Structure formats: structure tokens, C-alpha cells
Amino acid sequence: MNNVLKFKNKKNAVAAQDEIYNFAYLDENTKRMIRRALIKALCIPGYQVPFSSREMPMPYGWGTGGVQVTSSCLTTEDVIKVIDQGADDTTNAVSIRNFFKKTANIETTEKTSQASIIQTRHRIPEEKLKEKQILVYQVPIPEPLAFLEPRYQETKKMHALSEYGIMHVKLYEDITKNGHIETAYAYPVKTNGRYIMDPSPIPKFDNPKMDNNPAIQLFGAGREQRIYAIPPYTEVTSLDFEDYPFDPSKAPYKCSICGSNESFLDEIITDDEGNRSFICSDTNYCNQRMENN
Amino acid sequence: MQPILSVQNLNKYYGNQVGCKNMNLTLYPGEVVGVVGESGSGKTTFINSISGNLIPDSGKILIETGNETIDFLEISESLKRLLIRTELAFVHQNPRDGLRLDVSAGGNISERLMSIGQRNYGKIRQTIFKWLDKVEIDKSRVDDFPRTFSGGMLQRLQIAKNLVTSPKIIFMDEPTGGLDVSVQAKILDLLRKLVRELNLSVVIVSHDLAVIRLLADKIIVMKNGEAVESGLCDQVLDDPQHSYTQLLVSSVLQV
Predict the structure, then answer these.
(1) Whole-structure pTM over 0.90, yes or no?
(2) pLDDT digits (tens, 9 = 90+) for B44-99
(3) Burial level of A94, CB count in 10 A (0-12/13-18/19+)?
(4) At a CB cut-off of 8 Å and minimum separation 6, what does B73 contact?
(5) Rounded to whole angstroms, what are the CA distances from A48 to A144, A191, A221, B18, B139?
(6) B140 interfaces chain A, CB cutoff of 8 Å
(7) Chain A residues with CB inside 8 Å of B124's CB?
(8) Hey, are the CB atoms on A161 and B81 less than 8 Å from each other?
(9) How many CA atoms does the CB half-sphere of A60 hold within 13 Å?
């Protein structure tokens, strides 16, 4: 702060303050600590590694975990894309993108194929990810057993000993109440045949995309101070019953902009008469299709 | 015949205070052993120590699984927890301790099934109905939450939840405590039926001599953390030798 106080002119002071940020905001020791957690997480797919989450210049629940993970992975050559519910142009996505533009001065993009790091809230891009890409998820509640077993010590033991029967109790309750598995987001998965993992609140429509994905998938939960990961080409299976197999489900509509009937759709109410239309949740996917046609 | 459970010289202290001291117990398959004593005599400490809820200070707990004899205090925690949710069952005095109240009755019964790897909803559902029938809970209540059940029904639900995987040894801590007498009688009736039908091996703790006389084959009388008398149930209750047992027997209300 002393550096800042030297400036008489307020404008210069603000500019100088921006300059004294370390690359990508976090200090190097913190990044190193987070990278250690990331490496451990990659070695044990689906295992939640505790880390000492830092106070970030944004409220909890706005992606502090994801931002810390992204910050620790960034290099000066990286091109970053940030999406919120699939869209590049919503508040959360824009502000996080600006945050990295400002603190790391790196290139940003909206194109999935051109990004080397994609930070996401609640979606996996429609376009297939490639090797050497990193997908960073913002995670609100990392513990898949949390709603069934509130004691953290106990859930730790259950993970350690693979005591996962209770997870199916949740699915059982779903079928009993609704006739089918109603869980539509944060649908629990088993990673590499071992750890049960909460894939952050992505729609279950995206669950199959996690399986055998060539990209690195990193999950950061800032408030809960946990990091977990899926290495490239790792088996990720969604939990189900023999007679009620996993169904990614898809709304039976087409995107009213690009006409795709393969993408995940947002429902939009268009007037007071209850009319509605469906559009791609992944804005970049939708735009690309429009450009190509 | 091999005993299915044998407890040797079990000790559990709370600091300097005796929880239970020098306890021995032999349980044969299909047998019911009752543990009686006044409040604070160490009954619950004893049953918790032999069922894995508490870690005793010293002693041996040998469990016969069919292929081998396992020393319950020596095995790894993962094996211990596996045994607890497959081969052993614990019926709590307060059914709310043994049930998940925010999970439906059927979900409660199914938990042990799914934890041993059953993944077929239809079959699990059938097993649930079979057990609801066994413990005399109406099938239409299968999707209701336990909090809508009466005390007696909760206890029956807890029994079903525990017995669904056919455990080898069942521990019961005052299963009829806190229930009114007519409901108590119903639960006892049910327990007696299940014990005979399924050939269960049970350790049951109660301060109620009538409960023990009705269910148990053998009896252990505890006082101040120690067994003062043990033997065949009828023998001990009809011809008590120790002064404390005599006191217990003579203080039963005659209606």
C-alpha cells in the first residue's frame, strides 16, 4: 500500500495499484500450495483434497474456488474463456474474465476451441474438449454425501472405506417419490471406479461428457476449501439402478435460434401469455452454428 | 457346537470409573442372552462395547463367521464396519437413533441392502414389502417418513431395517423402553416370533425382568459394572442365589 500512497494524483494511484498485483492476483506461495493440492487431486481422481482457501475479491458463491484454481494454473501464454450456465456474456462470466484480464493481462476468448483454460459455472461446453485444455469448475458443495450425512468426519470415513450404500438411498427415494430418478443436476458419479464425486451443479445432461474426456477437469470449492479433479481419459460413471439406468435426458425441443436438437436448452418465457422458447445454453456453440450456416 | 460370539474378560473404564469389569458371555447360534441390572449397572456400556459402538479397554471378543473366528478388537476398521453393517445389527432403545428420519420407511429398510451392493430397484422393493409384512407395518406406509409413525411402529421399523440383511448377531438395548405396555407386549410378541422363525442369536439388555423372562434363554445379572450371577434364565429367576438378584426378582410388581 505504501507504493500507492506516494502518488498524489488519485488516477495514477489506481493504475499503480493495478500494477502491483502479482500475476493472476494470488501470490506465488499460495499458487504453489494450490498446485500441490491439484497434483494430489489428479493422482487420486475424485478424492477431495483440503486446501487453505484464500479470501478473494468477490463473495463466496461467486466462484472463489474456481478463480483460485484458474489463477494457480495460468501462464502468460494461456487463453482463457469463462462461462456461466453456458453463457459467455452473463455477469459472473464477464466479471471473472475481466478479473483475469486485469490481473494477468492475458488473452481471453469466447471460442471453446481456442481456450486453453475454461472456467465454468454449471455447464460443460457442447463442443468436444481436446487434450491440453483445462476445464475448471466452480463448486458450491463438494461433498456428495453432505445432504445424507451431515457429519464431515463420518463422510470422510465413508469415502475412505467406500461405504456408498447411502448414496443409492437418495436415488431410491427419488424413484419412490417420482417414479424415476428426479435428480437433474449435481448427479453423483463414481470416478475411476473408486470415489463418489459431486460433479458440481452441472445438469446430468453433461455427465456423460466427463467420462473419458481428453481434457483435464479441475474442481475448486472456495468456501468449503476443497479441490478435486478428473485426469484426462478417466472413467466417470453416473450412479443408477439396474432397472432404472442413468438417463441424461434432453428437453424435446430445438434451439429457436440455431435449430440444434442436440444441445442443452434454456427455457425462456417470452410474454405474459405463457409463451416460451428454447435456446442453447452454450452461447458460443449457438453463435458458431449461426456463423457456419 | 461353536459359540457364535464369545466375550472374554472384557473391561471398560471411564477414567477411574468402572463401566464394566471382567465380563464374560457365550452366545450360541439361535440363543437369546439377556443382560439385566438396575440403571447405571453397566448394561449399556457392556452391549456397546461388544457391538462396536465403544472400544473396550481390554478383553477379547470372538465372532464366528462360519469360515473363521474373528477377534473383533484386532481387525481393521474397514472390516469392523463391514461386519457391523452386514453380520451384526444394533436395535437402539430410541428408534430415532437407529433410523434416518428424513428418509422414507422403505428407504430406511433398503439402506443395508444397497450398502452390500444390491442395485435392482424392483427386487429391493420386494424385499422391503416382505419385511414390512414381517414386522406388521401396513404396506401402504412404505413411502411415509418415520416421523409420521407412532413409537411402536418406529421400533418395528428399526427392527426391520436391522434384520433385512439377515445379520448373525443382534444386539438390542432396551428395545421396549419408552413404549406403553400394550405396545411393549406387541413388540415382544414380534421379537419372539422373529427369534424363533429366523433362528436369531440375540444379546438383549433390559431392566425389565418380564422382558428377559419372555425372550431370553440365558441371563446375566449385572451390578456396579460386574456380573453377579449368570445361568439359565428360568433357573436364575426362579432360584436366585445372589442377594442382588433376589432383590431384583422380589421387587417385580405382582398385578
Answers:
(1) no
(2) 999 999 999 999 999 999 999 878 899 999 999 888 988 888 889 999 999 999 99
(3) middle
(4) B55, B56, B59, B60, B61
(5) 10, 12, 10, 41, 41
(6) no
(7) 172
(8) yes
(9) 10
Q: Name the residue type at position B58.
A: S
Q: Which CATH number fits domain A2-238: 3.40.50.1360, 3.40.50.11310, 1.10.3720.10, 1.10.1060.10?
A: 3.40.50.11310
* Location of C-alpha cell 451392493: B117
Residue with cell 412404505: B142
Count the residues in chain A: 293
In DSSP terms, which residues pair with B35 in a beta bridge?
B205, B220
Residues 6+ apart with CB under 8 A from B46: B10, B12, B19, B20, B23, B35, B205, B222
ipTM: 0.85
Catalytic residues of A: 46, 255, 258, 280, 286
Please state, in angstroms and as integers, the Cα–Cα distance from residue B96 to each residue in B133, B144, B153, B157, following that order: 21, 15, 11, 10
Please provide the CATH number assigned to the domain covering B1-87+167-175+201-255.
3.40.50.300
* Contact yes or no for A243 and B122 at CB 8 A: yes
Q: A197 by DSSP, 3-state: which?
A: strand
Torsional sign, CA B99, B105, B109, B112 = negative
